[in-house]
Design goal:
9 helices
Amino acid sequence: MIRLDIFIDPVCPWCHVGKANLDRALADHPGHPFTILWHPFQLNPDMPEGGVDKRAYLEDKFGGKGRVDAVHEKLRETARKAGVEMDPDRPKRIPNTLDAHRLIHWAGVEGRQTEVVNALFHAYWDEGRDIGDPQVLADIGAAEGMDRDALLRLLASDADADDLRARDEDARRKGVTAVPTFVIAQKYVVSGAQPPELWGDVIKELSGQS
């Protein structure tokens, strides 16, 4: 098996699209060689603990309603091509995602990491849920077989928070500047929401297929 390290943030729309493209390629190549590991990267590491209003934040960042509408329309079109029906206006808040990354980390300990990543993307982008809320995160983990009460206790503490921040900072020092970023076999870096055809070619090359 070949290690595929993926750096994402659940509130990143391009991560959602990039994962959908990768998923399509993996489904088309069930004998793929990848073992997938998910890693933290906060798009907004200085986000307040309670998050902010998403629309107001983006309009301030991009310079007004019209520019945000244009970005969202491009995103809808790109997502649609990836087989994802995304409404960028469905989530009403941008949360601080440190706790979401802690949940992904704990899911990895239990061998449920990809399932929880899937559930976080679905909760935020499809259902508009606040994935900065500990109750929401505990519900997501419980739906994937994790202990809800244990998750609530962990989320109420600082467990692994410093470690996740350190891993995020280490990724930045090593050159990860945006997400999604994929590292193949700890050597080759692929950035952005690449199409499934590219992943299909990578899988064939790694598998020695023509």
